[in-house]
Write a structure and sequence with these properties.
The complex is a heterodimer. Chain A is an alpha/beta fold. Chain A has 18 helices and 11 strands. In chain A, helix 14 runs antiparallel to helix 15. Chain B is α+β, with helices and mostly antiparallel strands. Classes of the chains: A alpha/beta, B alpha+beta. At the A-B interface, helix 5, helix 7, strand 3, strand 5 and strand 11 of A face helix 1, helix 2, helix 4 and helix 7 of B.
């Protein structure tokens, strides 16, 4: 037994060394087969690397699920401008805690993934945009980068291949919106992290105005394993459209919360009841948010029918997002928790677009009124109507993210709202 | 990291079969001492910390900090990109980012003061006014909230004798609510200066506060 909790149903590919502090050292990493994939990749043409990743079907793990190989293939092939690879390590979606663990336990895996990605898109510089609050993680990562430089895995003429790739760890300063790719680029350049309209897409005009690609930490961590073992190997797990393994961050009312690496398509109910040891105190399951705070809630019946892959979640009316499973039992106060999420978005809205800046604040105010017993039934209609106007009307999807939990909770847990509006006694506590 | 008088409530302490030392869990063993001259251009020595020992009158920048600042400049193709790291360094030295600090950083990076104000006020980690020696940030977002973060927050306010967002009279503590700190499986998560305390229960708060009072000064 090691990492807080492990399960024998896990397939630990990228999380294999969680809980082993020796693995942070470059020598241990190399002894265990590290940087072999980098050697393999550097011997190949960039396009051949892209083809392997395409064949694996790896999809972006940051939430959108866009195929990684396809994203890489958008980069220009013969431009004389410098290219950049940006690693999105600005993890701050409520419910998500996988990237921090990946970086603090296995920093070299990420560095190797970044180097292979940089080779594939012909980039000479990688920026790892790491969340500002992660002081410890930033130090671990930066130290690992230094070790990799010292050993010749990063820097000039890597492993005698003639390729030069630099890696820089960039520490953010606290802004959820910098996890949005254009916001991240603005922030890296020393500006406010305000997203901008696309096109132009980052592959044409990205960081510092140059062609750039942005990948999530978990995506890049999977890359060395795919290069080493081949695209077909990765397809032994998951489904045709969602192949591979994924880290599931389970939090909330379960007995064994934590990160579990499972094949995509894993049944949600097995994750809760078997892998995580069931709901706390043997309570009944009430609601689950399967993909972090930006996706619609589902009720217990829907959770029983939900398979955890990109398509399976859509079938039950929600999204996989970044697979942050938040579990709520019968004692949970849905209205309070949704209000807390809305508060988060109201705080994090960058303020550029009116529907988001005003909408998040008004939603938060109405939700709080209902929670504190000042609500009316008309408020529910207002909330539904207002959040509908917040979908698809803004530059980025932060505003859409508010609509998802609010609308789904009103649809599925209307009774709870009504109980608060009518000031009934029987409402959850936590 | 000095020895803690209580069992680290953080991270996996509740599984009962986890035998790593605190330094190993946190990575302090691995990181070791920071190179004072700013280290390699990758960033290790130039990465900011949040210290409890700081001086609002420090010069921006001199000595070790000047070396770190210069190292930061080598990391980006454009000078402006050094703005966020430079503001972080200023905060590490002075404890908060005052309008004067912003103006000084603007001067160093050839930017307009108005632009730097605009950027500095966008980000939550820059304290725009002085905070206590220990900035206690309790996550009360959904996952922690489900596991009782409100009670943990109340306990911190009670034991430090402060109002939410205010600094205690002795200047030791500022307690604020934080948004998700990305440690949702180890709820409740509390960040105190640079350091994460995880799986904190209301019962442990008194011990944490005592510990901080006893060890005031140096890294957290």
């Amino acid at each position: 037994m090691a990492y807080p909790y492990v399960s024998d149903r896990e397939v630990r590919v990228i999380s294999k060394y969680f809980g082993d502090p020796k693995h942070r050292h470059v020598d241990t990493y190399v002894e265990r087969g590290g940087y072999k994939a980098l050697e393999t990749a550097l011997a190949l043409e960039p396009d051949a690397v892209v083809d392997i990743v395409k064949a694996s079907g790896l999809r972006g793990r940051g939430g959108a699920g866009f195929p990684t190989g396809v994203k890489w293939s958008f980069m220009p092939k013969d431009s004389n401008k410098p290219h950049y690879l940006l690693c999105n390590a600005d993890e701050s979606e409520p419910g998500t805690f996988k990237d921090r663990e990946l970086m603090r336990w296995d920093p070299h895996q990420l560095i190797e993934g970044c180097l292979i990605g940089a080779h594939a898109i012909r980039a000479a510089h990688v920026y790892i945009y790491c969340r500002g609050e992660f002081f410890e993680t930033n130090q671990v990562l930066a130290r690992a980068v230094e070790d990799a430089y010292a050993k010749g895995y990063v820097g000039e003429n890597i492993l005698g291949s003639g390729r030069t790739i630099d890696v820089t760890v960039h520490q953010g300063a606290g802004a959820y919106i910098c996890g949005e790719e254009t916001g991240l680029m603005a922030s890296l350049e020393g500006d406010r992290g305000e997203p901008r309209v696309k096109p132009p897409f980052p592959a044409a005009v990205g960081a510092f105005g140059m062609p750039s690609t942005i990948n999530n930490v978990e995506t890049l961590c999977a890359v060395p394993h795919i290069i080493q073992n081949g695209g077909e190997w990765y397809r032994q797990w998951g489904s045709e459209k969602s192949p591979g393994t994924k880290l599931f961050c389970v939090s909330g009312h379960v007995n064994k919360p934590g990160n579990y690496e499972l094949p995509l398509g894993f049944p949600l109910i097995d994750l809760i009841e078997d892998v995580c040891g069931g709901v706390r105190d043997g309570n009944a399951l009430k609601a689950v948010i399967p993909g972090g705070s930006s996706v619609p809630l589902i009720n217990a019946d829907e959770a029983r029918a939900c398979a955890l892959d990109y398509e399976g979640c859509v079938e039950v009316g929600t999204m996989l997002g970044c697979a942050s499973v938040i579990v709520m039992d019968e004692k949970a106060n849905i209205v309070k928790q949704v209000r807390r999420m809305v508060d988060f978005y109201a705080h994090k809205s960058c303020g550029q677009c009116t529907p988001c800046r005003e909408g998040t604040a008004w939603t938060a105010r109405l939700m709080r009124g209902i929670e504190e017993g000042r609500g009316t039934e008309e408020d529910l209609d207002t909330l539904m109507q207002m959040t509908q106007q917040m979908v698809g009307t803004t530059i980025c999807v932060l505003s859409d993210s508010v609509a998802a939990p609010v609308q789904s909770s009103i649809e599925k847990f209307r009774d709870e709202y009504l109980a608060l509006i009518r000031r009934d006694e029987k409402v959850g506590v936590a | 990291m000095s020895e803690v008088p209580f069992k680290n409530p953080g991270w996996a302490g509740n599984t009962g079969d986890f035998d790593l030392t605190e330094d190993q869990v946190r990575g302090d063993d691995f990181v070791g001492e920071r190179p004072l001259d700013g280290g390699h251009a990758s960033g290790a020595g130039a990465m900011p910390y949040m210290l409890s020992e700081r001086n609002p009158d420090s010069k921006l920048f001199e000595g070790e900090y000047q070396e770190r600042f210069e190292k930061i400049l080598t990391r980006y193709p454009k000078k402006r990109a050094a703005l966020l790291p430079a503001l972080s360094l200023a905060q590490e030295l002075r404890g908060h980012v005052s309008p004067e600090s912003m103006d000084r950083v603007a001067e160093l990076l050839d930017l307009s003061p108005a632009y730097v104000r605009g950027v500095a006020t966008f980000y939550t980690m820059y304290n725009k006014r002085p905070v206590g020696r220990h900035l206690v940030q309790v996550c009360t977002n959904i996952s922690c909230n489900l596991c009782g973060a409100d009670e943990v927050l109340d306990a911190f306010l009670r034991y430090t004798d402060t109002e939410l967002g205010q600094t205690s009279e002795d200047g030791e503590f500022t307690v604020i609510e934080a948004e998700c700190l990305a440690a949702c499986g180890f709820a409740t998560c509390v960040q105190i200066n640079s350091r994460y305390f995880e799986s904190v229960t209301p019962a442990e708060v008194a011990k944490i506060v005592e510990h901080l009072k006893a060890n005031s000064g140096g890294d957290d």
